[in-house]
Structure formats: C-alpha cells, structure tokens
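Sequence in, structure out. Go.
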Amino acid sequence: MAFFSRRKNKREQRAAKIDDAFNRVYSQIENIDSWEDPKKLEHYILDSCEQIIASTKAMERQKTEYRIVTQYLNDIKALENLPKETSRDLRSAATHICELQQSMDEVRNTQRNISDVQYQIISDEENDMPEIINRFAADEIYQAKLKKNLAYIEGEKSRWEIEREELMGQTKLFKHMAMAVLVCFMTLIILLYVMYAATQADITIWLLMVLFICATSGFIIFIRQNSISREGRNALIRLNQAISVLNVERMKYVNVTNSIEFLKDKYFVNSAAELQYVWEQYQDKLRDRKRYIQNNDDLEFYNDKLERVLGEIGLSDDKIWLNQVNALVNKQDMADCRHRLVMRRQKIRDRLDDHRRIVQEERDEIDRLMSRHEHYLPEIQEIIKSVDRLCGTHSSVNEKDKNVGS
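Output:
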C-alpha cells in the first residue's frame, strides 16, 4: 500500500508540474498575434497533450472497471468449482433466501379489504370482537322480529279502531230506532184512545197487541244495545292494550335500532355479516404481518449464513452476491450473469483500444509537427517528455530510429 501511495504522490506532483508548464506556455502564446507564426502550432501541440492526458485518465478508469469485471468473472468461476459440501451449504442458504423473499413479496402484494381505520378500531377491541359480532347479529334478528311484531300489532290496532267505530255507529242507529219505536208507541196509543172516545168500541185487544209489540221491540233494542255497549268496551280495552303493546315494541325497536346504527357507524359496515367479513380480513392481515416478521427474521438468519459461507470462499467481492442469490440457485441465471459480464468486458476492451488509438494518433501528430519545425519553447519539450512519462506514451520517430539502429 505504501508503494502505491508513493507512486500516486509522484504522479500527482508530476501532473502539477505539467499544469504549471501549460500555464506558462499559454501565457507566452497569447502574446503572439500572427496566426502564421510557427509558435501558434505550439498551441495545437498543447491541446494534443491535454487530449492525451484526458484519454489516458479515461483509460485508467476503464482499466479499473476491466479489473473489477474480471474479478467478478473469477468469482463466478470460483463459485462453480466449489467443494460439494460448501456448494451444498451455499445453495441451501440461497434457496431459503429466495423462498423467503418470494413469500415476503406475496405478503406485500396481498390486498386485504379492510381500511386502516377499521384495522385500528378492531385492534383495540380484538378480544371482544367475537362477542360484539354475535351481539350485532342477535340485534339484527331481534330487530327483524320486532319489525314483524310492530306490523302485526299495527294491524290489530287498526282492526280494533275500525270495529269500535262500527259499534259506535250501531249504537247511534239503535238509539234512533228506540226513539222511533217510542214515537210509534205513543202514536198508536193516541189513535186507540181517539177511536175509543169516538166509537166507544172495545180496544183492549188492540191495546194489548200494541203493548206487546212495543215491549218486544224495546226488549230487543235493549238487549242489542247492551251487547253493543259490551262489545264497545271490549273493543276499547283491546285497542288500549294494542296501543300499550305497540308503544313498548316501538321503544324496543328504537333501542335495538340505535344499537345497530352505533355499531354500523363505529365499524363502517352495513350489517353483522359485513362486520364478520371485516373481522376475518383483520385476522388474515394480522397473520400476514406475523408471517412477514417471521420471514424477515429468518431472512436475516440466512443472509448472515450466506455472508459467512461467501466470506469463507475468499471472493474478491462477496457482498454483491447477497443481492444475486437467484444466480446462486439457478444455473441459467448464473450463465446469464457470466454472459453479461463477458459482454461488458468486451465493450471495455473495445473502448480501451479506441483510447489507445486516439492517444497514439495524437502522439504521432505531435511528432509530425515537431519534425516540421525546429524551434519550440523549452517548456513545450519538457511538457511532451512529462506527458510521455505520465501517460506511458512514446515517440514513434524514436522507436523507428531505435529499430533502424538495431
């Protein structure tokens, strides 16, 4: 580590010196006004040097990524060549993790038909809910029974009211009939008295017959009048009883209805059956939460086990496989992962080749320009040498001279 640190510090110092040289040369070039002046070519050379440095930095980043991808491929190879016992432990832990994650996803995606407000209310009265539901159902049955009784009693009340009104009508009718009989009786008595006074005839038989008819009619009217009066009193008693019972039943109906409406408003339901359904949804959701917590605890256990097994293998990056457990279980997923890494490494290699080509073309262009002109700022030559040392480039002209000399 110390060696790399010293190397990094030297590289930074060298880059700082190059930056200072760039600044000095740029300040001198800016004072040259004629574009025909060969010194202006030095500006182009400096731009080429900057392009070489930028491409070299990009190459370093690509090389770092290339090494990381290669390490991942080596890790895959190591995972595929594990001993049987280690491979079995690894696959067992990964399989449990996949199953637990799938189970937790199912729990998260399961929708229960119960609102958060309903869940909170029922949670506060969880122990009393069976009794509340039973009482709710019993109140609904009792309410239906009272409603039926009210309809029957209303009918009875109406019947006794009609019957009382009919009896009262008959009472008035028989009163009129009694008056008519009395008038007829008096009229016949007067006629018989007039006949006796005028003719001195014997009217005893006629008088007896009139008395008999009037007495019989009066007796019949009296009997019927008593019967009507008795039936009227009976009807009034029954009507009062019906009204009394009706008032009691109405009070019971109002009380049970208020109790039912209170439960409806409290639990946001329309019936006891719906409350029973919401209660079942609450129990299912409660089981889902307990199942999720248990699965989460098991998942932590198997994640720790998988992390321990991966750490014993000695991979370059064992943490990344904690998020790639499917590849540890499914060979096809592992093959797809390897294929993606191979394709990625090939693209990196192609980009590295492109950067090398760009760097070499820029360096060759610098050699070409320098071979056409003799005079350059001393800083230019120093910059080019520093860039060669920093970026690992070289002059193609010098290489050719060396080849010819050899």
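Check: The chain is about 85% helix and 0% strand. Confidence is low (pLDDT under 50) at residues 1-8, 24-36, 397-406.
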